[in-house]
Amino acid sequence: xxxxxxxxxxxxxRQDARLLARDPAPLIVxxxxxxxxxxxxxxxxxxxxxxxxxxxxxxxxxxxxxxxVVFLFLLVNVVGFAMFREHGWHTWxxxxxGPARSFELVAGHxxxxxxxxxxxxxxxxxxxxxxxxxxxxxxxxALAVVGVPLALCVVxxxxxxxxxxxxxxQLTVAANLLALLLAGLGGALTPLSVLPDWARPLxxxxxxxxxxxxxxxxxxxxGGVVDVLLPAAVLCxxxxxxxxxxxxxxxxxxxxxxxx
Length: 260
Fold this sequence. Notes:
transmembrane, mainly alpha, cell membrane, 260 residues, 10 helices, elongated, Nod_factor_ABC_transporter, membrane
């Protein structure tokens, strides 16, 4: 990748950042909503954890990382909208007419979306943890080791859906179903120990499971960076797979249908 390619990607990222700064409401709402939901779910999670093997739990051990994962995957919609917006504004053809290649167009959007996902995750874990009395028995850097590939996985899931979906309606339905499915199977809505019997063998097949496993290792088991390398590596594998799907199916010449 030459200097010209890097400059084009940086220019696209700066434009996306300016657009996000002009209308930050979707990101703000998806950051504040989990903080609100935690207040309602913490008593339920407290009872579930104490009924298991964490007698001194206050519920935040499940509620904070769980809601962080749930609402992070809801960011998939925002990632997709950023790409469909270009088609709705009829600016996509102008981007294609420029010197930027397809992978540069994708990379420019990925950078800003990844920064937004990391910011949302950091606020939910940090502020949510402080408000709910979360006691992290392990190391905070270990949470970051899990959080970074998780955020990348979410962003690439959004890009993969952009590549696969023809219309914004398809994207919305697919993203919402994906977020709900991953939240349930991955143990974000309930502790992994109380997942239904039919869901347990399926859980390791979704990235949210590995994210919750990594977060639980740190929060409940006192794990450090070394202890979460496996979940982080699996999340990197999911992100790589989604990147391959994006590169294989993304075609800059394919029209996208928007509500407008």
